[in-house]
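Students often ask why we bother encoding 3D structure as a string. The short answer is that it lets us treat folding as translation between two languages. Here is a chain of 175 residues written in the first language.
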Amino acid sequence: MVTAETSARSAALPHTVGDTTFMQGMIGHHQQALEMAALVYQNSQSDEMKLLAKRIEVSQIDEINMMKDWLKSRRETLPDEHAHHAGDHALMPGMLTQAEMQRLASAKGAEFDRLFLQGMIKHHQGALTMVKVLFETPGAGQDGEIFAFASDVDADQSMEIDRMAAMLAALKERR
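And here it is in the second language, the structure alphabet:
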């Protein structure tokens, strides 16, 4: 049960504007990754790609829920679910443009797989940039939850970039 005292304590949890901006931005970033992953099931013939998409979905949904809880517990504003569709000029690092998303959505088979892997590598590299900016912002990233989450994003997405680069290289060899 949330009491006035519990609520006041949560709002007083130490965090910075940089922490809040990171969490709000990363939610939109993750939402685009989910949109990209959803395309795999209809546009790819590869079971390996479908397994990758499932891993992305599971991790991103879990992390979005954690970020929303983090923001709520600090009485911070949750971003609009479609804020990342605001236009190419407002894109976060690594975000695909509307044109890139349309090209991805219309591709099929091996061409889709290539575009997806290239796009998701770019997308994950953008998340790594966001983590770097967080840690370079004075006072930001000191909250234990944020530090652990951002460190996990850095490690997990770096590993996924390596995995996707290998998949992309294998795809090019098959041509």
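Translate back mentally: The chain has six helices and no strands. Keep this in mind for the problem set.
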